[in-house]
Amino acid sequence: MLPISVCIIAKNEEQHIEECLRKIKLYHYEIVLVDTGSTDKTVELAAKYTNNIYHFDWINDFSAAKNFAVSKATNDWILSIDCDEYLENIDETVLQKQMSQSPQSAGRILIRNRLTENGQVSYEQVRVTRFFNRKYFHFEGAIHEQVEKVAILPSDSIDAHFDAKTPKPTYPAPITVLHVGYDGSEDEMRAKSLRNIELLEQELNRTGPDAYLYYQLGQSFMKLKDYGKAYEWFNLGLSMDINPELDYVQTMVESYGYCLLDLKRYEEALQLLNIYDVFAVTADFVFLMGLIYMNNGLFDNAIQEFQKSTTMERFSTEGINSYRANYNIGVIYECTGHKEEAKKYYNKCGEYELAKNRLREL
């Protein structure tokens, strides 16, 4: 058994807590749960799986709560997950080697976000830094907290403190988690976004201009479908001196592009061509460029981008490099009167319901 403590903070999570803890229990890791004020059965249900349950008075600071949970662990190696995240797979052989070889680096676990779109379940995947040795890392940030290097004396052999704008020493940890938090009702999602916006604005007032906080504010307004506000925050973030190699910067650029499409600012979106060579490293960005060309009536260019996206391995949204791209090619061919070509690409989409509907129509 690997010396890992799984640390979780919770508040009124009776809907998810048992499945979350049951999945962890399969690996026999220590479970540390910190409750921040539940009024439902969260604590009672959690007690079936762990005796390590603590209370923390909520102070509108996620890092404070998570660092408190980390302090209660008996192991130095920490895996931090949320109650609505379920462990799917861990390759312990590979993980043990990484722990031995890179103790001063942090592991970026793979999170699969479950989404429902047009009545179909789909998945979006992202790597997030959640596995680390507490001797070298801790959480920072009151909202959308980040795992950062612990500040140390300059004389120490380890690199000095890293902030959110600096790439941390990381590796892709062989840990996969299913996130089901987007399964909630529209009202629940709206309330969560509004709460996040309030906390993010408080953090921004405390810290001053910060591209990462601008990005998170933009994402929150995107979830509210307030694309005008989201555009403003993304624009602020992208106007700062930021490192294009950071994952959140890649996502911010893509979200900015989708904002422009939602706002029907199609010609302005074409300006993303100016940064194509820097950001066309994921199928998601290439697919976005296909949509931008498509909305500007540049169909040959759009088809080229969609086809390119199907050849790329790095992606976040499921289907971006396969059935979604082929579906859009089919739509272009159908709309331009090339029905046989359209059928060809719709047939490449497998069980994608939108493509099956078009085939039935044709």
Describe the fold and architecture.
With 362 residues, the chain is α/β, with parallel strands linked by helices. It contains 15 helices and ten strands. It folds into two domains: 180 residues, Spore Coat Polysaccharide Biosynthesis Protein SpsA, Chain A; 176 residues, Tetratricopeptide repeat domain (Serine Threonine Protein Phosphatase 5, Tetratricopeptide repeat, Alpha Horseshoe), CATH 1.25.40. The strands form two sheets. The chain has an eight-stranded mixed beta sheet. Strands 8-9 form a two-stranded antiparallel ribbon. Helix 6 runs antiparallel to helix 7, helix 11 packs antiparallel against helix 12 and helix 12 runs antiparallel to helix 13. The longest helix has 22 residues. It is globular, with a radius of gyration of 22 Å. 37% of the residues are buried. About 4% of the residues have low confidence.
